[in-house]
Amino acid sequence: MRFGVHPVLRAALAASLLAGLAPAQAGGIPGDFDFYVLALSWSPGFCDTGGASKAYAQCAAGAHLGFVVHGLWPQYRHGFAADCGGFAQPSRFALESVKGLYPDFGLARYEWRKHGTCSGKSPSGYFADVRRAREAIAIPPQFADARKTETWMPLDIERAFIAANRRLKPGMLAVECSRGELAEVRICFSKDLRDFVACPEVARHFCYTEQISVAPMR
What pTM was estimated for this model as a whole? Predict the structure, then answer.
């Protein structure tokens, strides 16, 4: 596996700046944040909007990836912490613990450095939280085995996630799009990951395009 800055993250950071999100606060205090955001990238959409030339294994025919973990981000009510430092790089054992969640170890390692260091936990503890958050989310059945391109209203994608996840409500998630395609679903969790929480700043940056394309798995 290669270890570097994954193109999914670069695209998401650029999109955040364009959307006017509050900036990252570099060098925050580890553990000092308000809630988590679990970002689930729709892999076919990423591959269709420039990712295929940068992440061959993720986008290769037969990969059959749908929603993959982009990141678990410690978040403030306004903005987010980043690059908090103070911890060693994750061991191979820690990275193996999230195998199958991220599309590759390069993104997992980068996400640890950029966001995990702000969690206040060790690499193993943070990645355990990543798995816990991901396993707490039921992917709507409409996205479990997408075999053909479909057209959706972003609001209906939100409703599908709400229907599949008890206690998830409007204002606790956002649907992100890129170039007219589904890109990501972001879901807000309490700091202890025991429940979903309202997150107005995150939810405000919703894809307000009337309809978007949902690409099939490769």
Answer: 0.87
